[in-house]
Amino acid sequence: MANVLTLDNINIEGKTVLLRVDINSPLDPATKSFLDDTRIRAILPTLNRLSKAKTVLIAHQSRPGKNDFTSTLGHARELGRLLGRSIRWVEDIHGPKAMEAIEEMKIGDILMLNNIRMDPEEVNRKGDALALSETQLVQNLASVADVFVNDAFACAHRSSPSIVGFAHHLPCVAGELMAHEIHQIDLALESPKRPCVAVLGGIKVDDSIEVAHNMLKNNIADEVWFTGGVANLAIHLSGNDIGEGNISFLQNELQDTWDSTIKSATSLLKLYREKIFLPTDVAANVEENRIDIKIENLPIHAPLFDLGIASILALSSRIKSAGTIILNGPAGVFELPDFALGTIEMLNACAESGGYAVMGGGHTATLVSKRGLADKMGHVSTGGGACLDYIAGRTLPGIEALEISAQRYQLEITPVLLDE
Question: What is the pLDDT of residues 253-271, one digit of tens each?
């Protein structure tokens, strides 16, 4: 469990607050208009909590070199539309224009800085919280602020100046979204209602193997059900030939991590085989047609794109009877209608289950949202890589920085910021 402070622990009235958010959103390539404002809406509860402070928004959009790498002016306008008020934007990050704009702020004002990833230090400087606290970016912004609030859970697995650098300068606390993410995922990891079933798929095979290791070793999950690419690898390692083309695809995806992933997956299957459930049939793409085939009838010289019907029914039934479901990644190539069945039925089962269902971020969260199932799930994470890392038991730099600050804050700054 993360030991961090939240907005409940401090009085921010009249303070100048640096609020780091992740409102990185899909944009229309031609018009740069927002195709999905989910992440922008997700920060509204924190902004409402900061209504009596001066709030300086730090955000990014994409990264240098990508087509959707642009300023945050559109984000300021979209946020203003959602809030029903004007949000000031400045074409600067921590230079004279930004410093002047921050000094001019009044209580209740919201100022959005330009895309933080337009600053070379944000994208190029590496290191821990102490090293990144020495960047000019962090020192300049810290000099004009009282508190740092991190609400960017989706970036919590990144060690960059705007995520971890303020821990040695300012009291740093979790925003409403960050605190909610930590709490909801902790519910599933620390005291899951039994049986706890993990369903791991998608193409991040090495990540899924590590998540499975952590959940089984620490008795979090009672069962792990593999789908997607990780299922194909596990089927192969269990002695069933999945075909040269499918093996080559996995090798290409894993590249330098192939050998280490094979070693880790082999160990996992040896230690916990009785708790790991693999598909009994799969769906192959044979000349753009779905062909279901039993595992014992492999190999097939066609790509494996989904679970087979029998496996879909078995997985759906198990999900519906689970007390806790932790799901990450699609069950197959859901972008193709003929091979979306496994993913669709898997998500439908989570929505129909009486258990507590945690949906990983990334593709999983997008699919849940598009199918209108979000309000039927226990928790839908806004963070793809961050959620996966947290479930895998990895240290998230963003949360670690909040913990570092919490220790310093409790010792040194409590009399100044706690409510009287």
Answer: 999 999 999 999 999 999 9
**164 and 188 Cβ atoms separated by less than 8 Å:** no
**Where do runs of H (alpha helix) occur along 118-257?**
120-124, 129-132, 136-142, 161-164, 176-190, 205-217, 228-237, 244-254
Give Cα separations from 229 to 24, 31, 259 (angstroms): 27, 35, 16
Domain that holds residue 175: 7-180+396-417
Residue range 326-331: mean pLDDT, rounded: 95
Is a pLDDT exceeding 90 seen at residue 410? no
What residues contact 368, with CB distance under 8 A and at least 6 apart?
Answer: 347, 359, 374, 377, 380
What is the torsion angle, in degrees rounded to the nearest 10, for the CA atoms of residue 412, residue 416, residue 419 and residue 420? 110
Query: What CA–CA distance (Å, rounded) separates 234 from 268?
Result: 10
Residue pair 380/265 in contact by the 8 Å Cβ criterion = no
The CATH number assigned to the domain holding 144 equals 3.40.50.1260
Number of structural domains the chain divides into: 2
Strand 172-174 with 147-150, pairing:
parallel
324 three-class SS: strand
Tell me what pLDDT residue 420 has: 38
Which of 99, 110, 100, 104 shows the shortest CA–CA distance to 141? 99
SS3 358: strand
The 10s digit of each residue's pLDDT in 148-166 is 999 999 999 999 999 999 9
pTM attached to this predicted model:
0.88
User: Are 127 and 33 members of one domain?
Assistant: yes
Report d(CA 229, CA 219) in Å as an integer: 24
| Residue bearing tokens 């790498």 | 69
* 386 occurs within a structural domain: no
Helix residue ranges, H only, 200-307: 205-217, 228-237, 244-254, 258-272
Mark whether 172 and 255 lie in a shared domain. no
DSSP label at residue 356: E
